[in-house]
UniProtKB/TrEMBL annotation:
One of its GO terms (molecular function) is ATP binding. Residues 35-44 have a biased composition (Pro residues). Residues 56-304 form the ABC transporter domain. It comes from Brooklawnia cerclae. Residues 1-45 are annotated as: Disordered. Pfam families: ABC_tran. Keywords: ATP-binding, Nucleotide-binding, Translocase, Transport. Signal peptide: none annotated. This is Phosphate transport system ATP-binding protein. InterPro entries: AAA+_ATPase, ABC_transporter-like_ATP-bd, ABC_transporter-like_CS, P-loop_NTPase, PstB-like.
Amino acid sequence: MATDDAATQIAASEDEMATRVLPAVGPGPETAAPLPEPDTPGPRQPVVSGGGLSLLEARGVSAWFGSHRVLEGVSLVMGAGEVTALIGPSGCGKSTFLRVLNRMHELVPSASLAGEVLLDGGDVYGRGWRLQDVRRDIGMVFQKPNPFPAMSIYDNVVSGLRLTGRRVSRDVKDEIVVRSLVSAGLWGEVRDRLRQPGGGLSGGQQQRLCIARALAVRPRVLLMDEPCSALDPTSTRVIEETMGQLRREVTIVIVTHNMQQAARVSQRCAFFLASQGMPGQIVEYGDTDAMFSEPQDERTFDYVNGRFG
Ligand SMILES: Nc1ncnc2c1ncn2[C@@H]1O[C@H](COP(=O)(O)OP(=O)(O)O)[C@@H](O)[C@H]1O
Ligand SMILES: [Mg+2]
């Protein structure tokens, strides 16, 4: 989808910008000592804050591109430690909603919005928040895996740390790399080739590398926009299993077109719909199992049973 590609490029160019503008965070990893095993106790320095489980809440969110309103009055609580799935036909505003949540929507010149987004009660559009803090606390993974292909696996994982603006020692970086790759379910497959380029991994591995990169800065929320739609079934299953573990450390919001996936990975589900040129809205929200087994709205019933979309 063009929109997702654009978003991917935005993310990539942001990272590139960070690489150009911000100071380097220490010597490269080429001469690093062997990395610690995941279970090896080591220094647990709080490199970046905010690793606890967080609640994200949208209140009355509307969004426009120019005069075209694509979302209207969307309110949604994305629970701490839960996976919330956003489902609905193409074009109903799911990706736009995700980008409103971490302030990427405003990167589009014609874009505007109304409403509030609260992370643990604090309005991310409020004065107290710097843009880079919002994007660090609310990470994002896109449809198409977008690692830096020529950059090593190790450097890919730590590339986002530059956004935190802090200097990080080699030892701490090593720990972050191990922790992030373990959490992303990739450590066992790459532990012996951390210096090799990220572009050499399979598509599914690249997507988990992107998840590891997002986790390296210890986000409070992870947004995933159709993270498996470019992947084969085996890679998809691995990522779904990874999400089951991950939700214990980070609140997850996932957009998916795959109803089975929504049922497998999420505890809560929101059904978005934009009917006949109207802006997207949430038709139904609730416990995922209940939404699939006994939806309250006829349109939800038709959608989850594959009658449209
Ligand atoms: N950058 C953009 N500029 C203008 N319109 C856009 C842009 N991105 C998305 N849209 C429009 O916003 C609406 C919602 O799109 P999107 O959020 O991508 O929906 P979904 O993710 O549910 O498929 C669509 O009508 C789409 O054409
Ligand atoms: Mg989309």
